[in-house]
Amino acid sequence: xxxxxxxxxxxxxxxxxxxxxxxxxxxxxELWAFRExxxxxxxxxxxxxxxxxxxxxxxxxxxxxxMMLVFTVFFGRLARMPSDGVPYPLFAYVGLLxxxxxxxxxxxxxxxLITDQRLITRVYFPRIIVPISATLAAVVDFLVASLLLxxxxxxxxxxxxxxxxxxxxxxxxxxxxxxxxxFWLSALNVEYRDVAYAVPFLNQFWLFxxxxxxxxxxxxxxxxxxxxxxxxxxxxxxxxxxLLGAGQGPSPAVAGSAAVALLLFxxxxxxxRRRERTFVDAIGSGGR
Amino acid sequence: xxxxxIRAEGLGKRYRIGQLQRYKAxxxxxxxxxxxxxxxxRALGRSSDPNGGVQDxxxxxxxDVSFEIPAGAVVGIIGRNGAGKSTLLKVLSRIxxxxxxxxEIAGRxxxxxxxxxxxxxxxxGRENVFLNGAILGMRRGEIERKFDEIVAFAEVExxxxxxxxxxxxxxxxxxxxxxxxxxxxxxxxxxxxxxxGDVEFQRKCLGKMSEVAHQGRTVLFVSHNLAAVQxxxxxxxxxxxxxxxxxxxxxxxxxxxxxxxxxxxxxxLDRREDRAGDGSVRIRxxxxxxxxxxxxxxxxxxxxxNVEYKSDxxxxxxxxxxxxxxxxxxxxxLLDSEGMAGLPDVxxxxxxxxCVTDPINLxxxxxxxxxxxxxxxxxxxxxxxxxHIDVEGEHAYGLxxxxxxxxxxxxxxxxxxxxxxx
Lengths: 288, 422
Description:
The complex is a heterodimer. By secondary structure, chain A is mainly alpha-helical. Chain A is 70% helix and 1% strand. Chain A has 12 helices and 1 strand; from the N terminus they run αβααααααααααα. The relative contact order of chain A is 0.14. Chain B is α+β, with helices and mostly antiparallel strands. Chain B has helices spanning 17-20, 26-45, 85-92, 125-135, 140-154, 169-181, 199-213, 226-232, 250-264; strands spanning 4-16, 58-70, 74-78, 100-106, 109-112, 187-190, 218-222, 235-240, 243-249, 275-276, 281-290, 302-311, 315-316, 318-325, 331-336, 346-347, 350-359, 365-375, 378-391. In chain B, the strands form 5 sheets. Chain B has a 6-stranded mixed β-sheet with strand order 5-6-7-3-8-9, sandwiched between helices. In chain B, α7 (199-213) links the parallel β6 and β7. The interface between A and B is large, with 47 and 50 residues.
């Protein structure tokens, strides 16, 4: 057996199959080796989503744009929601961009392993690729929807300041949050299909506790710390601050959000890796 | 590289019976969690068993399987339903983890457990080739290089830019196999993929498989088609109830297997557990005899087949299948109740259906009988080698002698004449 160990770790192209034990980290080298599969699965998700639609990928813009209109009418005009001195449509859209990515990621990745069960029960690949490509497909929508943001910025003559340089970091925070939650939900849904039923509710609830339609300033001071534990608070606030100069910049609250996001991501990853080995047994092999 | 391509040491895979249920609801786990402390306490009370009280509902689909396969060997894996063939392949292709033991594989592995894995019906043939290739582990450049060859092999040149949902099932299979056939792994794991598709397609796949086998690649081939195993593989492994029962030259292992099967059909069907299907209908017995007065099956006999079944309730849309095969699993004929008048639409929960045939015209020798029930399109029960038929006889239809079974399977009533002299 020890000789096998040595062989396994020593030479290339050798695979050792054994019951795994302990806490596994993600094998980045393996993930890299499967990068083309990540690309193809993402590409498939996007391609299939907009197949047989008349306006295709324009839906990626239309959805947040429609929500922005609804929010502007009901929250901006009728409820007179404050918007940190920014035109309400712009305020809402900058919040909706990361929100839509997050919301789409959690609903798509929850079902991703079940949707791809034929794949999972027939071929080996690191299973983590499935929720990752579900997230990446949402990123493509995010990028398309960002085009409208440029239009809105021009229309309202808002020029992002130097703070916009923070955007890459904020996008990273957004991705870490979405992936972390996606890992948790997708792995849990394999064993407990209850998750799929809870997610639409979770999605709505999460929208209420995220400053998309309202600014953080309306949240009572005493609740801010607890509120900041929602990593999407840091993301949405950060986006507004970086692009529009509204609200606060990176503060202890954002640091708190980032810490929670990182915690979700790491624990989600570990949980996923631990459950991964029983996915196939839990899913069943689909008849054969 | 030479040497050993696959080495397995004490491989075992245990399933909890609970895992065979499709999934559990959160509520069940909570109930389990509450029940568990007590179960553990109880287990302590009578803990002569090292596994405690938790080993109640588990089965070993694979147990203590050890073998070595030299590089370049083509090995068939045979065994009855539920013997662990597919589980072994799944463990070796890393789809599921073993519970114990380990295996070591030297080289790039391609596993082909199904053709067209990951095909999406909305995508075109071209798109699916790339997707499927990536899933099977091909590089993009590799797929691009082989694309024309793949499409030509599948004979779908005219339809590469048509969504595969418009493909016929034959085209779909051909394209799926074509991608897999152009995979160039050092080790190829193949499951029953040849069981699907028409005869022409099967022949083409077998041809491609033997081509691969002759290129010095290591192939592990699971099949019920003993004739294919015999012709493709020099060695074979026989699995029985999750254990490796025998391995050696393919011809010998197959012979042993057939002998062990012959012993099996004396076990009453009701006690057989090597079944496939969802179990909603259970075949309790099958009796095959000649419709002749002395019940002996001869070349000219008409068969009478009785299948006794039991179901949970009244049986709707049931389809009974009785397949008759020769000793190497080549199909001879199929009795199929679908579309035949005679059975009512709704059958009682328990009963016996009978099928009577025309003369079978088979040469003397042994035939193997598989039986299955399909209920509303889903396989409900399937037993392989449920029975055998020994066709007796010396003469039939006035022929001077009957050909040997190993040479010819059938004879026909015939008339001869010289032209112009009737």
